[in-house]
Write a structure and sequence with these properties.
This protein is an alpha/beta fold. It is built from 18 helices and 25 strands. About 30% of the residues lie in helices and about 25% in strands. The chain is globular and about 75 Å long. The site of iron/sulfur cluster (SF4) has 14 residues, from helix 5 and helix 16.
Length: about 575
């Protein structure tokens, strides 16, 4: 049966049904009156009239400002289909229910919503539930955005000779700019340009020599700065590294970025975004996080140029221009992005930090276990564009990957940020076919041990990738049981790790259960829950290694800094819904 949604209004019929619904529920207080009063004062509220083939089946009241389903009043057997129609229109949504409304809660959880917050509003105890991103990705598989992307985008693919000389790189940059309207289309005389490279972490060094494919190539940045210098008033190279976040300045030095200042000390500077002042900005049509603290450097920019590296990402499938903006955030925002949903929050950042130009560094790319532990792959390419989704989609196609498989690219595409459809992207320079070279993808190994079981049938690449990394640390000798690996330790109680929205196995009370991520949040009272979407590596590491109190916790990032961020997040959670 087809379900359609039509925008309507707060009709008397709807009001009466709402009153009857809460009277039947028999809860204390006039919750229907509370809702009606709120909606009457909120111009944002959308009432969707839900109809089946044989007529109306109810209403969904939706707040687009918070991407929140405020009420579902739909015949029970039509709720799922009504919700399908809603997320096709509105993408990733959340829902709010009265905690006493157990039926509504159960229906939402069965559909794929997960309880993420509880709070009180005007004396009513409420629960907020976020739709699982894995469920959303499954629901939209093979679908196009509800509104077609208007027009087409141009992406330029430029080959660079394998020698990567300064002049060769510069020629390719100029050629990209010419194809996109010339330098003057991006920078006017005296303007401030912020270049956002990728300096994710201090990896990729062998015997003191950088092997390539981890951070944005220094030669590319030098050539880009030289192209900009005759016009720009200021050029700021700005980054906040993602691993060991206090070390950005050291990493600038490690990779030789400090030499960029010598090109023109009066105009060129480096900014560690983790030390920058911040400005709070509301996310338009906010999803997951409704506001973000953005480094002020981006506010001062007339032009932002995003210069990521072409690489595989063990959880995001590819780390390109969309993923690179995670580095544009201060440490607490990075940490919170994981907690509230990394994929959606990467899209949110693009509403606030808007790169005008993207140049993807495909001189030496990275395959296998990227973004930091993979292998360099010479591609001898620069890929330029002005639209993040289109530029990432073309780059993924060159890497032999389906752009729809990268969660952040797919979410951005479905939310209208840009096209991935080949017919909507005009590729100039060389063709994708001419330079396509499939990238080796990481072998994600979620195999458990003799008494440790992983249930991950429906998990998205996020939790799968991060858990692989942690399980890898368990595949080493167990000091308590010679001849065995830690992962095979004979625990007295069977250990289960649950991830993804649905698992074939059900948690049992007489076993040890660890639940990963937002998708498993509804089970958190049955064991240990590791929050996040995907949970931060550090959170999974600590959670899983709590099974091994005698074993030293592997060091992933600066522990003191991570613990401080955890405390700061707790403070945030005490406040209003972000
Ligand atoms: S919690 Fe994990 S499996 Fe679920 S959507 Fe998030 S990253 Fe994917």
């Amino acid at each position: 049966m087809n379900i359609t949604l039509q925008k309507g209004n707060l009709s008397q019929d709807l009001k009466d049904s709402l009153v009857r619904y809460y009277q039947a529920l028999g809860t204390e207080g006039d919750y229907a009156g509370h809702l009606l009063k709120q909606w009457a004062h909120d111009d944002n509220i959308i009432v969707y009239n839900v109809a089946g083939e044989s007529g109306p089946v109810g209403w969904i009241v939706y707040n687009p400002h918070k991407s929140l389903v405020e009420q579902i009043l739909v015949n029970k057997d039509q709720v799922g289909k009504g919700m399908d129609a809603l997320i096709e229109k509105e993408s990733l949504v959340a829902a709010e229910v009265l905690r006493a409304d157990k039926d509504a809660y159960r229906v939402l959880v069965d559909y794929g919503f997960r309880p993420t917050r509880t709070y009180t509003s005007d004396g009513f105890d409420l629960a907020k539930l976020d739709l699982s991103t894995a469920v959303y990705l499954k629901k939209i598989a093979g679908k196009r955005p509800s509104e077609e992307y208007p027009g087409t985008e141009t992406v330029v693919v430029e080959k660079v000779p394998p020698t990567h000389t300064h002049d060769e790189i510069k020629t390719a940059i100029i050629s990209i700019l010419d194809s996109l309207g010339g330098l003057e289309a991006f920078v006017k005389t005296g303007q401030t340009v912020v270049i956002k490279p990728n300096v994710v972490a201090d990896h990729g060094m062998k015997d003191g020599v950088y092997m390539g494919g981890v951070v944005t190539d220094l030669g590319l940045l030098k050539a880009l700065v030289e192209v900009l210098l005759p016009v720009a008033g200021k050029i700021i190279i700005a980054e906040g590294s993602s691993i060991n976040r206090a070390e950005t300045t050291k990493m600038f030095e490690l990779y030789g970025y400090d030499t960029l200042i010598d090109l023109d000390p009066a105009k060129v500077s480096l900014v560690d975004l983790h030390q920058d002042k911040l400005v709070k900005k509301a996310v338009p049509r906010g999803k997951r996080m409704l506001s973000r603290d953005i480094p002020v450097t981006f506010e001062k920019a007339d032009t932002i140029i995003n210069v990521p590296v072409m690489k595989i990402h063990f959880a995001a499938i590819a780390s390109l221009s969309i993923k690179n903006l995670q580095g544009a955030l201060p440490p607490l925002e990075k940490y919170m992005s994981h907690y509230f949903g990394l994929w959606q929050n990467l899209v949110n950042i693009h509403h606030l930090v808007k790169p005008n130009l993207i140049i993807i560094d495909g001189l030496t790319a990275q395959e296998d276990f990227g973004p930091v532990n993979g292998s360099p792959k010479p591609m001898n390419l620069l890929i330029g564009g002005t639209n993040a989704v289109a530029t990432d989609a073309v780059t993924m196609s060159i890497m032999g990957l389906d752009p729809a498989l990268s969660p952040p690219v797919r979410v951005a595409h479905m939310q209208g940020m840009g096209p991935i459809e080949p017919e909507k992207i005009h590729v100039t320079g060389v063709s994708i076919d001419e330079v396509r070279s499939p990238f080796k993808q990481p072998d994600i190994n979620l195999e458990g041990g003799e008494n440790l079981f992983v249930h991950a049938e429906t998990a998205c690449p996020g939790c799968r990738g991060y858990l692989h990394f942690v399980l890898f640390k368990l595949r080493r000798p167990d000091p308590q049981h010679p001849g065995k690996l830690l992962i095979d330790r004979p625990f007295q109680r069977k250990v289960n790790l649950f991830l993804g929205p649905v698992t074939e196995a059900e948690p049992k009370p007489d076993e040890t259960n660890i639940f990963l991520g937002t998708c498993q949040q509804h089970r958190k009272d049955m064991g240990k829950h590791l929050p996040g979407c995907p949970p931060h590596t550090d959170v999974i590491m600590k959670g899983v290694f709590s099974l091994y109190p005698d074993v030293e916790l592997p060091q992933y990032a600066d522990q003191t800094a991570e613990e401080k961020l955890e405390e700061m997040l707790k403070e945030v959670l005490k406040g209003d819904t972000p």
